[in-house]
Design a protein that fits this description.
Length: about 170
């Protein structure tokens, strides 16, 4: 029996997590999804993004059900800032787990571009894997089923930083 070196095992694991989009994730990323809700994030008087939530039936069920979140940015944001904000929100929500979270954050850092005003970044979770799109074009996928609910929690967890935005996204307002 041959044992893999730690570096080779890490490369294999990373390859299993971030991969090109599968055929099921190509085409219209919102095909078979319906709008649930929308909102706009402003910090003080500065607009940050417009957010739109989608699900297969237009209802928010839970973080573990298929959903899509589309963010249209209203200002420029560096990809490093997006990754850092993701880490900060996971830590704030108590969802940060060093091994898994850091692996996912490294993958996001390799996928996400810098965004400029008017750009759209979309996240789609199908129940098994997560897919990212930038201005309608596929960026890549994370095949770890635990990532999708944890990522969506930033906006949809009951203890999210912006509860009124969550209510608008899930159609309660």
């Amino acid at each position: 029996m041959r044992i893999l070196s730690p570096s080779l095992a890490a490369l294999i694991l990373m390859g299993a997590i971030a991969s090109p989009l599968s055929a099921s994730a190509s085409g219209d990323p919102l095909q078979q999804f319906q709008p649930v809700g929308k909102t706009k994030l402003k910090v003080f008087w500065f607009p940050v993004y417009e957010a739109h939530l989608y699900s297969p039936d237009g209802e928010f069920r839970s973080l573990n059900h298929p959903l899509a979140l589309r963010l249209r940015y209203l200002r420029d944001i560096d990809s490093k800032e997006l990754v850092s904000s993701t880490r900060d929100e996971w830590q704030r929500l108590g969802l940060y787990h060093p091994d898994a979270s850091e692996t996912w954050l490294k993958q996001l850092a390799s996928l996400w571009p810098d965004v400029e005003k008017g750009d759209e970044l979309m996240f789609r979770y199908d129940g098994d894997s997560s897919h990212f799109f930038f201005n309608g074009e596929p960026l890549g996928s994370l095949s770890d089923s635990g990532f999708g609910p944890q990522f969506a929690a930033i906006w949809l967890h009951p203890n999210t930083r912006f509860p009124s935005l969550r209510r608008e996204l899930i159609g309660e307002n």
